[in-house]
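Hi all, a correction to my earlier message: I attached the wrong file for NAD(P)-dependent dehydrogenase, short-chain alcohol dehydrogenase family. Here's the right sequence:
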Amino acid sequence: MGELDDTVAVITGAARGQGRSHAVALAEQGADIVAVDICADIDAIPYALGTKTDLDETARLVRHAGGRVVPVVADVRDLAQLQAGVRAAIDELGEIDIVIANAGVVAIGDTETHSEPVFTTIVDTNLKGVWHTLLATVPSIIRKGRGGSVVMVSSAQGLTGRGGDGSAAMFAYAASKHGVVGLMRSAANAYAQHKIRVNAVHPSGVATPMILNDFVANRMIDNPNPAVSQTLLPGVPLVEARDVTEAVLWLVGPRSRYVTGVSIPVDAGHVVM
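and the right structure:
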């Protein structure tokens, strides 16, 4: 028996990294998973994003953990596309209990200061995409009528301006992740009447392909950015996806049943330096 038996969870950005970690861990606790990912690169983002092969591997791992899964290829920037994918998954798995709005992009090391495509892409994915995720999923939780939990994956950069370098990329990332906090707090109030809890987690740099890629590595050699590497605890340059997952598991489960409207850093002390 798992803490999440008889639940359905929607996870965006599920093809790899944090999203995959969350999907597998929730399945191990009994949840069925709607695994959403764009499965395509974005021109303004300077590293490769997850692929359909990656999403299929997440689905395989979820099934191996004992969960049912519906992979959904959808861009969180496209509300109609996201809604259609979620509706199809509901037809197969049933109404939703849990939402993890995890999809996000960054362009650490891109020092261009006036790139509107970079700024717009990051904000549209990291902030508008979270709003779209709420619109596509919360009505299902309300229909189900037994409450639920929404976790928004923000960032340590949603709690501090450390690492700002004047670039469009870092301005957009910090602004979008701060915006997630406002969205979370507003949603916690809006959905409380339906017994839906809404919270945010705030990782510092996480050892996933978003950070561990050639573009970031090459740029960081020449221009180290403290938004990635500064932590209070020694020897922790990056946290692991599983560390974030542990916080997510607590927030979506019964042990946090009275916790809503809060921001939880998972950052080895990044925001208190």
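Sorry for the mix-up. The helical segments are 17-28, 52-64, 79-93, 116-144, 168-191, 214-222, 226-229, 241-252.
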